[in-house]
Amino acid sequence: MNIIKFIESFTNESFLNSKSSRRDSFGQFGTVGKNAAMAAIPFGLATFLAPQKSSAASTTFFGPQETPIEALQLALILEYLEDEFYATALATTGLIPSAHQTIFTQIAKHEKDHVEFLVSQLGDAAPARPTFDFTGGQGNPGGPFNPFGDYDTFLALSQAFEDTGVRAYKGQAGNLLGQPALLKAALQIHSVEARHASQVRRLRMEKGWIEGDDRGGLPEAAQAVYDGEDNSMQLFFNTSSVSGIPSAAGPESFDEPLTGAQATSIASLFIVP
User: Fold this and answer.
1) Which residues contact 237 (CB under 8 A, 6 or more apart)?
2) What is the DSSP string of 73-111?
């Protein structure tokens, strides 16, 4: 099978109207082999997928998110990050108070399920799990975060990761329009990530939504997670001009997407090169 033609078929009307399931579709993709798969994606990401460089970190992981394959690969990297973050936290004795153990155990189960689902869909095109450094030091000592030694920092970083996931899934939705089944699945994950974000925010005694571009007490290194959230213009309509509500409520009413490049830059802060 010509892999380029296969990817192009995602936007072919006859293909979209067929009765094939998304599992069948990606099953075909998985049979073409790793070399063919990497030939169909950006050079930077192909380098990352190569076995000898499976832990490489760079903002060139992903090119412009233009295909369903690339969109799912980006989603999987973010899910790997969250999955390992919560698994490590739950394994750290004394970090999470007993009253919150059930919450984070359930969130961890969700993230593990998201990883397994995305891996099943991508097959041989699934990127390897990177090596993560949740201090933000990219493997160097003295990173700005200490999430497994301080519960408040763990909560804050959990919030940032969940908020990133929500915005990143939103940013990739348009790239899955050619695959309705995959778009539906991505939106289902997106809504769960939003619930995670809201729950963690409330554990931190914050509102359940992002307020402007406020990073919620996180170090400046996390500001990229919230940049652009103070946008008041939606389809040429100034949401801050609605009478009877505070001007800040307008931007809070709309969550902004992250581009693939923005999401990759944020994730790269926690990946060892």
Assistant:
1) none
2) HHHHHHHHHHHHHHHHHHHSTTTS-HHHHHHHHHHHHHH
| 175-229: pLDDT as tens digits | 888 888 888 888 888 889 989 989 998 998 887 777 767 777 777 777 788 887 8
Report the DSSP pairing between strands 237-238 and 233-234: antiparallel
Tokens of 27: 């099953």
Residue 159 neighbours by CB under 8 Å, 6+ apart:
197, 200, 201, 204, 206, 216, 218
Separation between Cα atoms, residue 77 and residue 83, nearest integer Å: 10
What predicted TM-score, i.e. pTM, was given to this entire model?
Answer: 0.72
Q: Quickly count: other Cβ atoms within 10 Å of residue 35's Cβ.
A: 10
Calpha distance 96→151 (Å, rounded) = 7
Question: Within 13 A of 220's CA, how many CA atoms are on the CB side?
Answer: 0
